[in-house]
Design brief:
The complex is a heterodimer of chains A (152) and B (652). Chain A has two domains: 100 residues, Cytochrome C biogenesis protein (Helicase, Ruva Protein, domain 3); 48 residues. In chain A, 66% of the residues lie in helices and 0% in strands. Chain A is built from six helices and no strands. In chain A, helix 2 crosses helix 3. Chain A starts with a helix and ends with a helix. Chain B has 652 residues and is of the alpha+beta class. Among the domains of chain B are: 161 residues, no CATH class; 100 residues, no CATH class. Chain B is 64% helix and 10% strand. In chain B, helix 17 runs antiparallel to helix 18. The longest helix of chain B is centred in the middle third of the chain and has 33 residues. Chain B is globular and about 80 Å long. The termini of chain B are far apart. Classes of the chains: A mainly alpha (152), B alpha+beta (652). Chains A and B meet through helix 1, helix 5 and helix 6 of A and helix 13, helix 14, helix 15 and helix 16 of B.
Chain lengths: 152, 652
């Protein structure tokens, strides 16, 4: 690495760390009542309108849920309490976020499991490829090539 | 009369497809070579029949022929002509007719391209596979989903489409593009099946099909984005993607198709990943059929869903046949597809392509799991749960960011292996673009670790793609952007723009809802909007309330809301004041009481949304450029092919 490149990477690193630090400090957690209510509504599906959330829907029941959420947030209930309340009232399937317990938790864990397995397979393939390099040609390979060549 | 002609057309199509299939199978199995040429005549008959059927349906729609159940159910006398034409794909039966038409088009084009090679067993098996797919679709159209059913008592006027489907011209184009993508994957699928059956698994068939895959992929990309644009412009809540099952169904083949377009390069250059590439093609086609099953069987709740019908089990059966056949063929030919090459280093172009495929496959898996998980849970435990945006956002964000990171690195790597020093030199440019974008976005008010990081990775992707394009144009002038490398990099820039738009509009949008009297103003995120006046009138039986709203510095816009007597909820028609930096999205949230001039106005500020649509255009351009055969690239490939076969011979 040339000296110029080294300085280049150093400045990239500095700007990167500085930007991330500022991104974290600027970040506002949903603190106000309106912002909290907005988040909860965005994660609550309208029970009668095919996959839209209650923010998006014009249906009367969506409007009713919006009002309920506003009231519950005003009463200073936690997000979990509000989601649980809405699930009791309208069914678990109004919660767009699948629960992390019971059978539903599988939807969270299966992809992680699959990813770990796939990485394992990839690593073992790399090892096989590396150890397989320089392997001698077998009679079987020659046979295959002969056959392919003879094919019209 | 029209119904009979249409039915006759479909019957001709079915006869053509079936006879062509039988003829070609006989020729293949009994070695009667005259059958190959005759099968092409049957293909022509099938296309002819399908064109007649589509023509009959369009005629019936344009002439308001309400004796046809399809026309009576989905069109009205007042429907404007362009939507009458588009009604062909507005509902279940017609959309299958369009599918058949496009399928016929693709099959005819493939048959024409390969007409001189039809005696080649690989081509013949591929044509047989395509015709088998045609038989399935014509079989659906002639019985279970017939678009030409007639009514005994003819109504004076039809019911018309859902009003959401007839108030924006995009609705006329989006499904056609999407279907061009879906249906187009039939051709590479057929060639993959042909290659597996004949056992000719070298690289030859790939070259023949990559153009077809690219066309299908380009159409699907544009189709999906047009769909997103349509929801943004029409649905009135300012969203363009909701992880709805039907959207996911269109996204799944796109993901596997994109993975294929990348991994196929590894096979062409290094002869590796053969099983994997074939599996990706088979999976892509299977997923288009599975998506069609999801959207047309009524098993899921979705805004896009077609009316529930009895054809669900048929699609599921067809899907099962495809999966079983694919798995069998791969298992049967598995020993022949053993790859000769090996990947030397993960820090090489092929190493990053492998990582790309891992991530795309995982992405597709998460989308598929999230889509069908509620069905699985309900089947097992009778519990009803929903899997929505929070799930997809959380699970897919890390994969998406990793893909962006790969897009920044991969184009800068060489084949086989890249040394650390070279890497450090080459990656400095994209890295600088990345952190530059981060710093810029923060100075413009961006916040939060993930959005800022995502924008930075978008910037580095842009940097590395621009770098490759610069190198190409410096060497070859404007021809540097033509061909697969140049086209691919243009598409990468398109994806980076979409990433910018997606991240910014998801993370930094702001909104407010206001009840306004004429003359009142409201302000959201520094944008002042003033309600000027309202017009309340009847358009035929429909009550329309249209507001004049002035957006500071952007002009006057007219969001409206309409109550259709035939449709329950009022439909809001938003109006968007677009700029490069942000959209001011105006929609009326409720229909005012008659005689009142007070409106409920929803104002959303959505940054960088227009970048996504530009990104879509770039993907289209990139696809076109990649489709143009580039002599320089072809010559290079031939040279490499011959040198690699020499190497192989030397080794033996």
């Amino acid at each position: 690495m040339s000296r110029l490149q080294r300085y280049g990477w150093l400045s990239v690193l500095v700007v990167f760390v500085a930007s991330l630090a500022m991104a974290i400090t600027n970040d506002d957690v949903p603190a106000t009542i309106a912002e909290r209510a907005y988040e909860i509504k965005a994660d609550t599906l309208c029970p009668v309108c095919d996959g839209q959330n209650v923010l998006e829907s014009n249906a009367p029941v969506a409007a009713a849920i919006r009002r309920q959420v506003d009231e519950l947030v005003e009463e200073d209930r936690t997000d979990e309490e509000i989601h649980a309340y809405l699930a009791r009232q309208y069914g678990q399937d109004v919660n767009a976020k699948p629960p992390g317990t019971g059978i539903s938790s599988l939807v969270w864990s299966i992809p992680v499991l699959v990813a770990v397995l796939a990485v394992g397979v990839l690593i073992s393939s790399f090892k096989k490829w590396r150890s397989g390099r320089g392997k001698l040609v077998t009679e079987e390979d020659r046979e295959l090539v002969r056959k392919l060549r003879d094919e019209p | 009369m029209t119904a009979s002609i249409g039915f006759l057309g479909i019957a001709l199509g079915l006869v053509g497809a079936s006879c062509g299939l039988i003829e070609i199978l006989l020729a293949l199995l009994v070695r009667k070579s005259s059958g190959f040429k005759r099968s092409l005549i049957w293909v022509a008959l099938m296309v002819f029949g399908c064109v007649i059927a589509v023509g009959a349906m369009e005629l019936a729609l344009l002439q308001n022929n309400f004796s046809l159940a399809y026309v009576a159910g989905n069109s009205t006398i007042e429907t404007p002509t362009i939507y009458k034409i588009a009604t062909l794909w507005g509902a279940l039966e017609g959309s299958l007719l369009l599918w058949a038409l496009l399928l016929c088009g693709y099959v005819a084009a493939a048959a024409w391209c390969f007409r001189t090679k039809i005696h080649d067993r690989l081509v013949a098996w591929s044509l047989a596979t395509m015709l088998a797919v045609c038989v399935f679709f014509f079989g659906l159209l002639i019985g279970p989903a017939s678009p030409f059913d007639t009514l005994t008592s003819v109504p004076l006027d039809g019911e018309g489409l859902n009003p959401l489907l007839r108030n924006h011209p995009l609705m006329a184009i989006h499904p056609v593009m999407l279907y061009l993508g879906y249906v187009g994957f039939t051709v590479p699928f057929a060639f993959a099946v042909g290659a597996l059956i004949t056992g000719r698994l070298g690289e030859g068939w790939l070259v023949a099909t990559r153009t077809w895959t690219l066309i299908a992929w380009g159409c699907l990309s544009i189709g999906i984005l047009l769909g997103a644009w349509w929801s943004y412009e029409v649905l009135g809540w300012g969203g363009y993607w909701a992880w709805d099952p039907v959207e996911n169904a269109s996204f799944l083949p796109w993901l596997t198709g994109t993975a294929f377009l990348h991994s196929v390069i590894v096979q062409e250059r290094r002869g590796m990943l053969r099983v994997w590439n074939l599996s990706l093609l088979l999976a892509t086609f299977a997923l288009t059929i599975f998506g069609t099953f999801l959207t047309r069987s009524g098993v899921i709740d979705s805004v896009h869903e077609f009316s529930a019908s009895s054809i669900g089990p048929l699609f599921l059966g067809f899907f099962a046949i495809i999966v079983v056949t694919s798995v069998f063929l791969i298992g049967w030919r598995g020993d022949r597809i053993r790859s000769p090459g090996s990947i030397d280093s993960p820090f090489s172009r092929e190493g990053t392509f492998l990582a790309n495929n891992f991530l795309f496959a995982l992405f597709a898996f998460v989308v598929l799991l999230g889509t069908i998980f509620p069905l699985l849970v309900e089947a097992v435990s009778n519990e009803q749960i929903a899997v929505g945006r929070p799930y997809f956002d959380r699970m897919l964000m890390p994969i998406g960011l990793a893909l962006l990171a790969l897009m920044s690195v991969s184009p800068m790597l060489s084949w086989r292996s890249t040394s650390f020093t070279t890497l450090a030199g080459k990656l400095l440019g994209p890295a600088a673009c990345g952190v530059g974008t981060m710093a810029l976005s923060i100075s413009l008010g961006a916040h939060g670790v993930w959005p800022v990081l995502g924008l930075g990775l978008g910037g580095s992707t842009l940097g590395s793609a621009a770098h490759q394009i610069l190198i190409g144009t410096r060497r070859h002038g404007w021809k540097g952007i033509i061909g697969r490398t140049g086209g691919g990099m243009i598409a990468h820039i398109g994806i980076a723009l979409i990433a910018f738009g997606f991240i910014a509009s998801t993370a930094f949008s702001e909104e407010g809802e206001f009840v306004l009297q004429p003359g009142d103003s409201a302000s959201v995120a520094g944008h002042e909007v003033t309600f000027v006046s309202v017009r309340d009138y009847f358009d035929g039986p429909n009550r329309v309330v249209s507001a004049q709203v002035k957006v500071e510095g952007r002009g006057t816009f007219a969001p409206a809301i309409t109550r259709y007597p035939t449709f329950g909820r009022p439909i809001s028609t938003p109006s968007v004041a677009t700029s490069w930096i942000d959209d001011v999205y105006l929609s009326l949230a409720a229909i005012p009481d008659e005689g009142m001039d007070r409106i409920t106005l929803r104002v959303l500020i959505k940054p960088l949304v227009v970048w996504m649509w530009m990104g879509g255009a770039l993907i289209g351009l990139g696809t076109l450029s990649a489709l143009i055969p580039n002599r320089r690239e072809l010559a290079k490939e031939e040279k490499e092919d011959s040198s690699s076969s020499e190497r192989l011979e030397a080794k033996l």
